[in-house]
Model the fold of this input.
Amino acid sequence: EKENGDLFSKSFQDIISTLPKGNSWGFPDPLLQYHGFWHSSVFLQGILSAQQQFQAQPADIILCSAPKTGTTWLKSLTYATITRTSYDDSTSPLLSKMPHDVVPFMELDHAHFSTHRHLGIPVLATHIPYSALPKSVIDSVCKIVYICSDPKDSFVSLYLFLSKYQKSQNMQTFNLDEAFEQFCQGVCCYGPYWDHVLEFWTASLEHPDKILFLKYEEMSDDTILYVQRLAEFIGCPFSSEEEEKGVPEKIVKMCSFENLSNLEVNKNGKHRVGGTENAHYFRKGKVGDWENWLTPEMAARLDQITMQKLSGSGLTL
Ligand code: A3P
Done:
């Protein structure tokens, strides 16, 4: 195993030495461009490892997203929905563990279950672009749920998340204007953002039974409706008895920003990978908060890029 690991690192070093390098957003290492998308070297290593080793099973549910688009929320809702016969809103592991510790992340946790999957429940999450997903995910009948959000909110959320992390590590924080410029040019973790969204959008139109495409804003508007859709899509629809008992409502309430962000684990705990404070994953949870951070000119520029990039796709963000 160790020898395999060493060989893998060597070939990884060979691969990354050939890749185009981009801005680092204030981190020590530049982002690397691999098949059209930008990645930090740690995540890229995870992506290549997942591509080589991850074996999807038919019952798997893969939660996909670009960073800072509602991943934490989607993880909680999916986990709570799928485990609802084992736990309720007073016993769920979501009350004592942060959502990222309940649903594993393919790029970081993958090595642990490549041979013994150890997935307590068959749900895992990834930020890998559609075109770079492990082949077994595409070939298997497993389900994919994708969430995206308004790029303006997503950019602000990403910038503030990384700034908080940099502060917590006593690093100098990256400048907002410079980050904005990089984001517009597509140079951000798992960017260009629009390409990430478009790949999943197109695939969801081609394979509607395999990919459920969700928008954070629509989910915020009517979360109960979307949880019902989600449950149906992943093959565990709510029975009429459950609906009468208000089970979907209870799940939505338990997974709400207000509830999760006020739990002790999410207020004061630290994420097992990299020691990020759990609280950083729960900032504000409000659609349209970009207004407090972007000038009207910045917003107009992002909207313009979004319109151009999505034109003809049938998708609006
Ligand atoms: P803000 O930074 O705008 O507050 P991700 O989970 O993909 O990292 O996305 C992060 C965004 O989702 C953050 O947005 C965060 O506050 C919000 N979020 C986290 N948990 C949530 C929840 N339970 N319900 C709604 N939004 C949530």
User: Anything to note?
Assistant: The chain has one domain: 29-310. The domain at 29-310 is CATH 3.40.50.300 (Rossmann fold). The chain is about 45% helix and 10% strand.
